Amino acid sequence: MAGTTVSPTPLLKDELDIVIPTIRNLDFLEMWRPFFEQYHLIIVQDGDPSKTIRVPEGFDYELYNRNDINKILGPKASCISFKDSACRCFGYMVSKKKYIYTIDDDCFVAKNPSGKDINALEQHIKNLLTPSTPFFFNTLYDPYREGADFVRGYPFSLREGAPTAVSHGLWLNIPDYDAPTQLVKPLERNTRYVDAVLTIPKGTLFPMCGMNLAFNRELIGPAMYFGLMGDGQPIGRYDDMWAGWCMKVICDHLGYGVKTGLPYIWHSKASNPFVNLKKEYKGIYWQEELIPFFQSVTLSKDCTTVQKCYIEISKQVKAKLGKVDEYFNKLADAMVTWIEAWDEQNSSGGKSADATNGPAK
């Protein structure tokens, strides 16, 4: 369970990278040291590349700034957002591990109701290593958890479940609200700890948040593109949700599962709602067309890989959302560029990634 002491040899120690986007010194890692220190970190520095980001001693990391991204991807670096946490997906691309955990630098260790520190990474790993149940809902939630099982009436033919592609964690303290809700409820805090993990049913979309998120990179990695956001773009704060909608459509098509619920982190500070409104305002009304679009996307039987699925979605984005705004034509092109860059970096002949490296293991 979340809150148990961390084991001497962490699960998936050599199979998981922790990806952190940041513009500041990573002092927050000190509180995560008992849980993160034995893992490899990929730090994606946003903003001014000449700024030095301080990483606490003892962590094994590689750090990429904008100059590194441009050097590694060349012209294809145009698909990686600048001055937006969407830049984190570059870390997904250059990782060589099977699993990814990504966390924001304002997310601290939370405590469970008994007062124990929650090892968020351990719970994400449990979520990813057990199957999901996207095809039939289990009323006791995750049947693979200790103390739970499939309830009476659950088809035996579906009890093997589906491979889990994504584990979506939640947040105590500052909830992940949009700007209008922040403005209406400036003092609202999430204090409810719900001890549950649910599989999001097939055919159901959800707003994915990237601040406490883990996924199986081998199963779904190429779909985890956080879009074009931030500098030079008409929209922000929709990066993780865009990735989530694309990812969920592809998981539904390929037969993978997505879980949400535990683990919780402590989200320490609220972002400025007025700045957020400026970033979000187009997205708030665009999403009324985006959701029906994703609900109606169909992928052919020829779409047998994540890459093929993603390219097919990009074509439909251009055909159907290009009419909503020219931005979506640009985004559709960037989606193709992302897949090309992903395949280059993940082929045997891909360029080696140059980065600033921290202490080796």
From TrEMBL:
GO biological process entries: cell wall organization; plant-type cell wall organization or biogenesis; UDP-L-arabinose metabolic process
The keyword Lipoprotein belongs to this UniProt entry's keyword annotation: no
Known catalytic reactions: UDP-beta-L-arabinofuranose = UDP-beta-L-arabinopyranose
Source species, domain of life: Eukaryota
InterPro entries assigned to the protein according to its UniProt record, in alphabetical order: Nucleotide-diphossugar_trans (IPR029044), RGP (IPR004901), RGP_fam (IPR037595)
Xref: Pfam families: RGP (PF03214)
Principal subcellular localization: Golgi
Subcellular location: Golgi apparatus
The UniProt record lists the keyword Glycoprotein: yes
UniProt-annotated glycosylation sites, renumbered to this chain: R152
Residue stretches spanning the membrane: none
GO molecular function term, any single one: UDP-arabinopyranose mutase activity
Record keywords, A-Z: Cell wall biogenesis/degradation, Glycoprotein, Golgi apparatus, Isomerase
Site (Required for activity): R152, R159
This enzyme's EC code(s): 5.4.99.30
GO cellular component: cytosol; Golgi apparatus
Protein's job: Probable UDP-L-arabinose mutase involved in the biosynthesis of cell wall non-cellulosic polysaccharides.
Family named by the database record: Belongs to the RGP family.
Name this protein carries in UniProt: UDP-arabinopyranose mutase
Organism annotation: Carya illinoinensis
